[in-house]
Write a structure and sequence with these properties.
about 210 residues, mainly alpha, MetI-like fold, MetI-like_sf, Nickel ABC transporter, permease protein
Length: about 210
């Protein structure tokens, strides 16, 4: 679960950061390049990306161990490999969200009040552009947990994903059921947190009309 947890954090940081930067940049050539990066991120197969990272960062540069569970450094490459597809999806959805809010009346009003582009994006545009992202986070958690099975196999890590694979091959039904139950519970908890965060970003959801 440490691999999936770190991958979720990295995917949020990378995806939100890329979309935020893309929305802020004014120079059109750079904006086009940044907006195309998410398509590259989720079109590359995870297993190929993992093998590429092992060859480049482990064998060629020697920055990280290629396999195993030797401390935090051995977690970096698998977590980044697992995070990139989700980060690409987050970035693409948030980019579309920013495109939809820039011409809203409240954005124009914020500019009329003298706020800078950075202030408008941070205080007004981001909260509304991020609403579709919240729903997507809840859905992507399941993909991240399931993707850990393949990533842990590629990097020869001992974890829940590899345990699930070995349990299926051994037909160890109790272990498979336990892993499915824990994964389902984590999925439910994350989606519950997402539902609780919605009113904080959109007060209209928290508003309860009075019944006369």
């Amino acid at each position: 679960m440490s691999l999936a947890g770190l991958a979720i954090v990295l995917s949020l940081i990378g995806g939100v950061g890329l979309a935020y930067l893309t929305a802020y940049v004014r120079w059109q050539p750079l904006k086009v390049v940044l907006s195309r990066l998410p398509s590259l991120g989720f079109s590359v197969p995870v297993f190929w990306m993992g093998l590429l990272f092992i060859q480049l960062f482990a064998f060629s540069l020697g920055w990280f161990p290629a396999t195993g569970n030797q401390g935090f450094s051995s977690l970096i490459l698998p977590a980044v490999t697992l995070a990139i597809p989700s980060a690409a999806v987050y970035a693409q959805v948030l980019q579309r969200g920013f495109q939809g809010v820039w011409k809203e009346p409240y954005i124009i009003t914020a500019y009329a009040k003298g706020l800078t582009r950075a202030q408008v994006q941070a205080r007004h545009a981001f909260k509304n552009a991020a609403l579709p992202l919240l729903t997507l986070i809840g859905l992507q958690v399941g993909n991240t947990v399931s993707g850990a099975v393949l990533v842990e196999t590629i990097f020869a890590r001992s974890g829940v994903g590899r345990l699930a694979q070995e349990a299926v091959l051994r037909q160890d039904i109790p272990v498979v059921l336990a892993i499915v139950a824990v994964s389902a519970a984590a999925f439910v908890v994350v989606n519950l947190i997402v539902d609780l965060l919605y009113p904080a970003l959109d007060p209209r959801i928290a508003h309860t009309p009075k019944v006369s």
